[in-house]
Amino acid sequence: MIVSFVLNGRARDVDVLPSETFLDVLRDRLGIFDAKEGCDEGVCGACTVLLDGRPVSSCLVLAPSVRGHRVTTVRGLERGAGLHPLQDAFVKHGAVQCGFCTPGMLLTALAFLERHPAPTRADIRTALEGNLCRCTGYAKIVDAVEAYARGDSNGG
Amino acid sequence: MADAPTRPSPPARTDALTLTPALRVVGQPVVRHDARDKVAAATAYAADWAMPGMLHAAVLRSPHAAARIVKLDTARAAAMPGVAAVLTAKDVPRNTLATDVPGQTTAVGPLRATLHVLAEGRVRHQGEPIALVAAETLEGARAAAEAIEVEYEREPGVFTPEAALAAGAPRVHDTGNLLAHWHVARGDVTGGFARAAVVVEGQYETQFVDAAYLEPESGVAWIDSDGVITIRLSTQVIEHFRDVAEVLDVPQNRVRVIGTYLGGGFGGKEDVTVEVYLGLLALRTGRPVKMVWTRQESLLSRAKRHPYRMRYRTGALASGEIVAQQVELLADAGAYAYLSALVLLYSTVTAAGPYRIPAVEVDARVAYTNNPPTSAMRGFGAMQTVFGYESQMDRVARALGLDPVTVREVNALRRGDVLPVGQVIETHAAVAELARRAWDELGPPTPPRAPHIKVGRGLSCNFQPYGRIVWLHDWSSAWVGFEMDASLVVRSGVPDVGGGQASSLCQIAAEVLGVPLQSVSIHISDSALTPLAGTTTASRQLYMSGNAVLKTARELRAQILSVAAPMLGADAGDLAMAGGAVHGPGGRTLPLPEVLRQCARAGVPRSHLAVYHAPAGEPVDLARGSGKVFPDYTFGAHAAEVEVDTETGAVRVLKYAAAHDVGRAINPQSVEGQIQGGAVQGLGYALMEEVILEDGINLTTSFASYLIPSAADVPDITPIVAESGEGLGPFNARGIGEPPIGPPAAAIANAIEDACGARVSRLPITAERVARALGLVV
Known about the structure:
Strand order of the largest sheet of chain B: 4-8-2-15-12-13-14
Shape of chain B: globular
Radius of gyration of chain A: 15 Å
Strand content of chain B: 25-35%
Distance between the termini of chain A: 46 Å
Number of domains of chain B: 3
Strand content of chain A: 5-15%
Largest sheet of chain A: 5 strands, mixed
Structural class of chain B: alpha+beta
Distance between the termini of chain B: 61 Å
Number of helices of chain A: 5
Helix content of chain B: 25-40%
Shape of chain A: globular
Oligomer: heterodimer
CATH class of the largest domain in chain B: Alpha Beta
CATH class of the largest domain in chain A: Alpha Beta
CATH topology of the largest domain in chain B: Aldehyde Oxidoreductase, domain 4
Number of strands of chain B: 31
Number of domains of chain A: 2
Number of helices of chain B: 18
Largest interface: A-B, 61 and 62 residues
Helix content of chain A: 25-40%
Strand order of the largest sheet of chain A: 2-1-5-3-4
Structural class of chain A: alpha+beta
CATH superfamily of the largest domain in chain B: Aldehyde oxidase/xanthine dehydrogenase, molybdopterin binding domain
CATH superfamily of the largest domain in chain A: Beta-grasp domain
């Protein structure tokens, strides 16, 4: 079946199986590896994408259900040739180690900050609860999100 | 856009750099090149790779912990549409993977650790691989694996090391169930206990845990146009290309391993994962093959951290001075040897802690069981013992009415002291000052939120070797070269597990050769094209490959300056390289490209390859305590403040400070990241993580049941980066990859007792265990 949706601002028509997950569509059909597969059961958050601006675990989303929706992956955040300021903040604050959780973490954080522009560190930690990171201990991720929320210039 | 990162919050406590000489790039919290790629999702991890005509692979694994395979029929699977290959043990040219374990175990003798690539007749643990399938689709490969007909005859198994070592126990291997036994004795233990004012005895138990990196084991293999079997995968050890060649029975120079930037390793990608399977399937089919383990498969089949049963007996004088310590360790190796004997060696050497104790006896055994195999994981046997010796230290302090810092100050190792194994500590041992700094960092006590909430504090110190055992004769090589435009290239076989391994090497090269960090490119982790650097394990890469790049860059610098000297009419010794130029006396300057063109004209190479050899030694006789085992150690101290709900046993960590002497921080931001991340992994070990087994059957094969800390589970870790200026690494750095994971479990246990009087000596310290210790549950 053909499913039409908007991926990072561009209209896409993709032939999918009804049983396929959207994560598999991205990775195996479109060759877009922005979303990572960490657990395939909706626990780790590595496969997070934004569906109409809301974070979802794409490993739990069946492909037909994205019909008519807007999907954003990390590459949809970039502005022109440069990084999004939240991406810059992650780089500057050392919020990235192995990087496998980073795309999902960025998208969850961004969606959260749009609804909660002035969060506390505790708020940020709660918001990121569904995105596991095994490397950083989270402190520098919280630093980056906090700095971006404060509007520190250039994410820093 | 400014490129300098800001300081983190909570602010790190970093010593003022009083070290010489003044450095431009090393010691700065520089932005890592890989971080920029990773935030843009530009990094191609092992699973982010696809090739035309690529097959997908699956592994059939044993559902039983101990069984005989009485029938194995692949005919139906092989006939399924889209199936390209089905392999069992009989299809594997050499079905045994073998590793020699150098040195000797006291009672068992020299060890050759072997395991079958695919099961031959018997399975010894749940998840043991039996057959491989490659098919046009992943679904097809999985369906075919399920269609393989296997009949098992269940056998009795052994599921604890005690049961394994009992008389008449079923044998996991024909050689018997005792895999290794180390014994260390030093000083008059009996006499020590006789003069002790207090003797504290304790038994401690640690659990199976999983590395639980976010990126499952994955890779793609293909036969390249030159016929070389090429495997691109997530691995901490590209040198396993030799193991692949052995199994495939091809020359070692016909196999190439390309290591990707890893989505986490933590020791779990130190032993072979998918590379042998991929090599077999690519060779059989002649087509590219991809294998990605599911999370369930990873949790089911990967080697775990060893569970330990530990008995400690500690005798101290009224002053707090410890005069004798006896330790018995018993570890569970699971069904295959892997690195268990060496893990146990690390435990044996570190069992008495970073303290000067005149009389110590350590007896350590590890036994085969029908549990999942255990092997390397961050901390590597020097971690479990921290829970033992630091729980004991706290109890000694309590028994004598001393404060936790004082008892550690009284006993702290210092330079010149001798470990029970006979090794002399040759560098600054910062235990006492780190303990004080971590403790003081906690600040004023947090008032309890409610009458049933109790708040308490705990301290825990540790020491962790960095670099490999000296009789393994470790080395690392590196290539550094200038392009004609003065951009710099570094080639190193180092796998980057996410700790900034590659980036730190760029800093070192930029520092020595006086070029901006942005003009350095690095190629890593390719067994065919980058000089071998050894494994990214044992907290060794900054030490080993950092020294290799430092040596290479310094020798290259001398080459370049030998050409620049006559151009500037000066001695090479009076020249400096900085800002992409060579500077001579009197302000005379030559841009580097000009010097490099002169190198080309004069036939002087603009590149260099060098090897760094670690100080080496012969195996020591542990029982006689006769010498050096590790190159050096990294010391640390963590302090925790917790609250305990005395109605439920729930524990929350309120404050946490982690201090380590890293000698010199090459990239302070990366060092802080290692400390914060390691401490949080350690908190997971302390409070929540456990692989739960029932007669060898794993009940925790998903992230919904195997719980690792989330952002909401842990507080900010305050890293305290001490720089003594002493260490064996480049610019006097010490390894910091593993050390921070060691102290948390004991720090938390000690804080809980301080809060509410309950001593928990079994990990993880769940609310239920605290409730039991409080007498709330019987």
